[in-house]
Amino acid sequence: MGDKKAQLSVGDITAEFDVLSGTLGPEVIDVSSLVKTGYFTYDPGFLSTAACESKITFIDGDAGVLLYRGYPIDQLATKSNFLEVCYLLLNGELPDASHYKEFCKMINRHTMVHEQIRNFFNGFRRDAHPMAIMVGVVGALSAFYHDSLDIKNPEHRASSALRLIAKMPTIAAMCYKYSIGQPFMPPQNHMSYAENFLHMMFGTPCEEITPDPVLVRALDKIFILHADHEQNASTSTVRLAGSTGANPFVCISAGIAALWGPAHGGANEAALNMLHEIGDISQIGKYIERAKDPNDPFRLMGFGHRVYKNYDPRAKVMRQTCYEVLEAVGLRNDPFFKLAMELERIALEDDYFVKRKLYPNVDFYSGITLSAIGIPTNMFTVIFALARTIGWTAHWNEMISSPYRLGRPRQLYTGPTERKFVDMHDRV
Ligand code: CMC
Questions:
Q1: Sign of dihedral through CA atoms 74, 80, 86, 89?
Q2: For a surface tag, which of 4, 172, 258, 398 has the fewest beta carbons within 10 Å of its beta carbon?
Q3: Ligand 1 pocket: which residues have CB below 6 Å?
Q4: pTM exceeds 0.70
Q5: Active site annotation includes 226
Q6: What confidence tens digit (pLDDT) does each residue in 325-366 have?
Q7: DSSP string, 263-279
Q8: Of the candidates 188, 168, 160, 177, which has an alpha carbon nearest to the alpha carbon of residue 121?
């Protein structure tokens, strides 16, 4: 901490605050003592508020930088794999060969779910949105693993983290199998994390499948690119729920609920739905005009980003992967994917989008890639949740393992002032 101070004067009160520096990013003004003056800060949407200190992920939206524990996302996506990234996010360092082997072994040990969990699925309608099932089933894991619920015990926390990372693909694939009326496929521990997921999604007891390595690698990259994104809405939800002392399984379930919204994890689903709505290359011009019309609420889904105003470093990696997958599955000339690529080309050249720096974001390319792999649209957010589980878990663990306080925001109250109760027959 340096000696820099910030001062705030309101009326005849002057308060002084420490200015704190991180290793990267803007300095912050520590306003935690402001409450003593009788004032609160007001910052809806947390646009100017750092809610915690963290060592996990750094984003510089203007420079298009995303670092996990200091490592640039493009290097991790091209040189690493998802389980190695999970280890990094959880532990702070890349594993050496023996730690990596041990970590994979531990994950494999937990890939199955308790047999009773199968029964949960029967309680859901077959047409239930898989995110609705995920919220319920992941929260319900806390009813099964009583041996790892002591959040003050680091071994319990590590055990819960492994269980969550290991079981998410199994539960996600079960959601899909249930929706199409096929039997659940047990995990295959000799397969890699992404390969096993594709096997549980698309294999059947009558037909084993060997997933195409190009698709396996693409999915693994999607997992890496979505693994963490610092204090986004769902991660902040997990931290807030965790600050009450709630167990990790229900905290992650809260994160899944927050991710479901179209303003957060639902964007790649929305991008695909928009492409279907456009329907034909001949219609693109009409939709581009609609997106530019200030009186039309229509926006090009999968374009623009709140934080990345120059480019999204994840989109750069995902774009190349998207093209590789389209080539591998022979869909490069499919009318639907040609439409997507034409939309990308036109928007990248159009003055309106260029001036506002509205580039295709990671969700545009990941939506197309997942669709080309054969994943149904309503499973896209589930895959995001599967990948983000490691980020949520790492943030939850970081918070619980250092001194923390119950998260309890304040408010600017604008409701009625105190008034007397009126009996019903006297109300007008
Ligand atoms: N299509 C058309 N115009 C747009 C779009 C778009 N997708 N996005 C922004 N604009 C325009 C907007 O109308 C405004 O124009 P003007 O200056 O003339 O009023 C200008 O660009 C700035 O927009 P903004 O709303 O101030 O930007 P924002 O930072 O608040 O919005 C956004 C960011 C992601 C909500 C927005 O770009 C959007 O709605 N995009 C489509 C949805 C989407 O793809 N979301 C996924 C984001 S990635 C998710 C993740 O990382 O987890």
A1: negative
A2: 4
A3: 264, 267, 291, 299-306, 356, 358, 361, 363
A4: yes
A5: no
A6: 999 999 888 888 889 889 999 988 999 999 998 988 898 899
A7: TTTTHHHHHHHHHHHH-
A8: 177
